[in-house]
Automatic annotation (TrEMBL):
It is an enzyme of class 3 (hydrolase). This is non-reducing end alpha-L-arabinofuranosidase. It comes from Penicillium steckii. Gene3D superfamilies: Glycosidases, Golgi alpha-mannosidase II. It catalyses: Hydrolysis of terminal non-reducing alpha-L-arabinofuranoside residues in alpha-L-arabinosides. It comes from the Eukaryota. Pfam families: Alpha-L-AF_C, ASD1_dom.
Amino acid sequence: VTISVSKSGGNATSNLQYGAMEEEINHCGEGGLYAELIRNRAFQGSDKFPSSLDAWTAVGDSSLSLQNLSDPLSAALPTSVRVKGSGSAGLINSGFWGIDVRPQKYSGSFYVKGDYSGSFTASLSSLDGKKLASTKVKSKSVAGEWVQHEFTLNPKSKASSTNNTFSLSFDGSKVKDGYLDFNLISLFPPTWNDRPNGMRRDLMQALKDLDLKFLRFPGGNNLEGDTIEGRWKWNETIGPLKDRPGRATTWQYGETGGFGLIEYMEWCDDLNLEPILAVWAGLALNGDTVPESELDVHVQDALDELEFLTGSVDTKYGALRAKYGHPEPWKIKYVEVGNEDNLNNGLSSYKSYRFAAFYDAISEKYPDIQVLASTIDMTLEGKAGGDYHLYDTPDNFVKKFDFFDNQSSDHPILLGEIAATEFNNGGEGINWDDTNFSLYPWWIGSVSEAVFLLGAERNADKIIGTTYAPFLMNLDSYQWSPTMISFDSNPDNTAKSTSWHVYDLFNKNHMTDTLPATSKDGFGPLYYATGVNSETKSRIFKAAVYNSTEDVPVSLTFSGVGRGTKADLTVLTAPDAFSMNEVGGANIVNSKTTTIKAGKKGEFSFKLPNLSVAVLTTN
Ligand code: AHR
């Protein structure tokens, strides 16, 4: 394939290009990024998932029972646990399918009510009963009042596995009434940037390593809710943890609300990510929509949320944000209205009044915000952008290489959820009834995503940025695979997928401008995008080879780049089409960088093997 790249005439690309999408699914937050180690820490319930003693067992002969007391810890946390016992009594938590114990400081706390004169013992133990760390906490507990206790645990060595538990015990003989009531029992390992109520370090590191540029949150289906009442409510995810009621996610488990709006913004701050905030748009997954006459309250709710994030401390909600520790307003440049409003019978109401109501109100109050519709299946008004999602087979990803070629640049598009999910089997798109989804991204799927991403990069003036979705999966409890990063309770096992490596290569070689390329050979099996980084002046060629019977010879010239110029060529390959990076396993993606020199006519000559992803950058 002979390719000639011009010196100019391309388009400026977005500097967001690659980002992340997060919603509570796959225990990616609860039991994942959100570093809390205690599962079911506050016995929160909902109609869908009633309060339970899930993850809890009693110490020795003591007994546990859920109580809805007349004087609960808070209105948001009405259910607590009563521990009854005359001897050594208490409760044990099995964590999010294990607890990682290593020599580091664990910060814990709990609320307790009842007349008790002894002390509490907080411990981490292995399943076979070995104590890994333990501390005594002098009781301040009194009758008729919830009193918070804090403690730290400092294990001396690393446990041999994560089959460990946390326990909180007391001497039942010193309890006046024969029982104590507990709630909001919490334990955190060291977090990213040492933030209280913060994020798990290894997962943040895996995200930081990708050098992402934006974060789309908080969903996804989980934003929408199963019902209108069950929607994600921003104002129930802020403030002290005891005032966050939690809710039923749309993904078969409850969330505590501990990983809330402020935590999302702190995540953006910590990794320097542009927030792309999704606001609820009047559609729930069961197809219920808010009628036009009742939509105002939800539009106002979105404006309040924006005031909370961006308003000065003189505004009602800006003052609330300051009260919760963030006097400096954040900046929000992108707001997406809803999620996949083209589905669940939502499109006609979205087109006829829902989107316009949010678009008009947000644009009027915040003219600098780029408002995005959650679909491109409609005529977008004004300056609105759209959001396009694609879950499909590798073959269908490759077929969509030219999908954006004829798209107008008037309405920028976010590629807000992208993943090759299903193996090629002759099927067209996702068959939701089959079990064909891969557990992890697999190499041919990742190469096909690369082809699609190249189609987007060629049209990068039209694309705001792209994110794989879902991003994270806890292998011990998940609803959707594959994901960009997979993990379990052991941080040493975290797996960066094959797609992670493709995104990493493309993201780290950012083109500020595309450059037009000509070739008589057409696209396929070699697909590519060409451009320049105006800061480094480096010319860039990004490519993927899909379905080739032999290595593809490439002769590449860049106008103005002469004989002898050096370039780095990085080629990613994998042992075979179905190779995957698995939790606890080794990285199977082979990355090889060689330096090559331009020949007599300034041409770079090299060969790319089938199922490879490559980037060439001139020095
Ligand atoms: O990413 C998983 C789900 O896929 C999202 O919640 C939804 O937006 C899409 O259908």
